Amino acid sequence: MDAYGPKPRLVREKHPPWTQLSRLGPVFVSQGPAPAMIPRPLRRLCLLAAVLVLPLRAGEATPSPDPALLQRAEKIVAPLSLADPAQNLRVRDQVAAQYAALRVVHEARDAAIQAARKQDGADKAAINAAVQSARDTATARQCELHYAFLARLAADLSSAQIEKIKDGMTYGVLPNTYRVYQEMLPDLKPEQSAQILAWLTEAREHAMDAGSSQEKHAWFGKYKGRINNYLSKAGYDMKKAERDMFARKKTPEAASN
Q: What pTM does this model have?
């Protein structure tokens, strides 16, 4: 099973053994050379990047969410309409704390990348290796934070409620995009709909950990490209399907006028 992928046996990419960085599960990281294969001159920069990206671990203080994060979390939790004020507060604080913890990881990653690129005398290969190491280390830590966050939510919320939290953290892109595919291609087979939903779900898990709106949408963009290629190979003309969908929507509007 991929880092955030669904359990159904669907189309998946294969990843080499050294991409399994997280003790809590595999993660999507670079498919470059295995660490043992990195030439010794490159290892020092990689180590520097890894050290700079070291995030919060057990026993370290969790950063306190700022008011903006608490406000964002409040908006995400509000649609649940939790009757228990204490429960509502706990869930809000968990969401805000997750954003704060991810911010630490993202800022450390960015600092490590910046430091690697400023190394005097380092060649391009060494810099690239250090940058990728910083990204991979951050990805592994995000994976750990991700599963720990979901485990904490599960102590207070049902699976359906957690789904709403995930959608709230990713602007509702999954249900909206899935609905558009269903409207655009009403003759989809059940297994095709299942594959689309599986890939959008995987995209959402990644997007939850992204640090900006642009990065979140980029994850969905990546997976929508995969979905469109999958459907094109299955014989669907995606451009025609989109035109037909808009034409169907215009017909009722014209009739009402």
A: 0.75
